[in-house]
Design brief:
Layout (H helix, E strand, L loop, with lengths): L2 H19 L8 H4 L16 H25 L21
Helix pairs in contact: 1-3
């Protein structure tokens, strides 16, 4: 795998995991806190904590990407999963 391909996979995984992690850790909206900042939606989080989300996303992505690299280096592939193999010609019944 080239470095560019690895970076592209990491980048795509990072964005997918970011959007999966965004809703976690939000306790109250601005409307619930009673302090709606002018120009924002009332349903926006009171304390977004973006730095924490970015760090957690990077850590989770690093774990997932490392697992992907280890699986790729082990030689495991789709051919190793028994139920994904198409039936061979000897298994089919002829008329």
């Amino acid at each position: 795998m080239s470095v560019a391909f690895g970076l592209a996979i990491f980048f795509m995984l990072w964005w997918i995991i970011l959007f999966a992690m965004l809703p976690f850790g939000i306790h109250r909206t601005q409307e619930e806190a009673g302090d709606v900042v002018p120009g924002t939606e009332a349903s926006a989080p009171n304390k977004p904590r973006f730095l924490r989300v970015i760090v957690l996303t990077t850590v989770a992505t690093t774990i997932v990407f490392s697992s992907y690299i280890a699986l790729r280096q082990s030689g495991f592939g789709l051919d190793d999963i028994p139920f994904l193999k198409p039936p061979s010609s000897s298994d089919s019944q002829s008329d």
